[in-house]
Design a protein that fits this description.
Helix 3 packs parallel to helix 6 and helix 6 runs parallel beside helix 7. The chain is an alpha/beta fold. A hairpin with a 2-residue loop joins strand 1 and strand 2. Bound molecules: adenosine-5'-triphosphate. Adenosine-5'-triphosphate binds next to strand 2 and helix 1.
């Protein structure tokens, strides 16, 4: 079937795994330009495996992945990145490099002619990183490190930022801060795909996909999800 004309990312029937263990069983997910999609699932549901198959760090065994209408299923990870998709893993920053060096690495990957201009823009978004730009990333708090991870990812000027558990290792206060940063990115034409087990991220999502045991159990708007009694009970703790 041809991709939805409005999709930026369109994954259909993605199957993937490790050795003899199959983790994903025909996952369908799409992201439209500029929207924020949440991929919600418990530990071990297959979220990381799915994101890695999108960005080319795990090879999909079957299915098709399109970015901007182009089939990228067999493409190298670096070529996917050049086409506008950037991956932010849980371990997104290099602790032994300075803040500025970390951000430059993101831009260098694409060979940007004017990384300084981009740097200024990023520092406007994250003023605390400008203040600390010559310090090692290891000196930042957990929340600030996540911001640096986002800044580093954005320096590659993606159309789609794919984020794996931005809440990992953060206290609830820092999770709120990350959510605030993500909301400030919305409306800039950037699409976000966020894999999380923390339902607080529903606050920034336009649509949600629920992954369970490598299958998509639900896809729809946040309102549709909360209207679904089983999901409401499972994810919102309804008694
Ligand atoms: P988490 O939030 O714990 O990262 P997840 O939803 O991202 O969970 P995955 O990391 O994709 O889930 O893991 C799905 C399954 O694949 C799990 O059973 C996990 O143990 C297994 N798995 C993940 N990575 C590998 C690997 N490199 N080799 C073998 N099995 C793996």
């Amino acid at each position: 079937m041809p991709p939805e004309p409005s999709s930026l990312l369109d994954a259909k029937g993605v199957e993937a795994g490790y050795g003899t263990m199959q983790v994903l069983w025909g996952v369908d997910l799409d992201v439209r330009p500029g929207e924020t999609v949440l991929l919600l699932g418990a530990n071990g549901a297959g979220k990381t495996t799915f994101l890695k198959s999108l960005v080319g760090l795990v090879q999909a065994r079957s299915g098709i992945i399109r970015l901007g209408g182009e089939d990228i299923t067999r493409m190298r990870s670096s070529d996917r990145m050049r086409r506008g998709m950037t991956y932010m893993s849980e371990l997104a920053v290099f602790p032994d490099l300075t803040i500025e060096e970390n951000i430059r690495i993101g831009a260098q990957a694409l060979g940007h002619a004017n990384p300084n201009g981009r740097m200024d823009e990023l520092y406007q978004l994250f003023p605390v990183l400008r203040e600390k730009r010559r310090q090692l990333a290891s000196s930042l708090s957990g929340g600030q490190r996540k911001m640096l991870g986002v800044a580093k990812a954005l320096s590659a000027e993606p159309k789609l930022l794919v984020m794996d558990e931005p809440s990992a290792g953060l206290s609830p206060l820092f999770v709120k801060e990350v959510i605030r940063v993500l909301s400030s990115l919305q409306g800039r034409g950037l699409a976000l795909l966020i894999a999380e087990q923390n339902i607080s991220f529903l606050e920034v999502a336009t649509r949600v996909f629920v992954l369970e045991g490598g299958h998509i159990r639900f896809s729809g708007t946040v309102a549709e999800m909360s209207g679904n009694e089983d999901l409401h009970r499972a994810y919102f703790g309804l008694t």
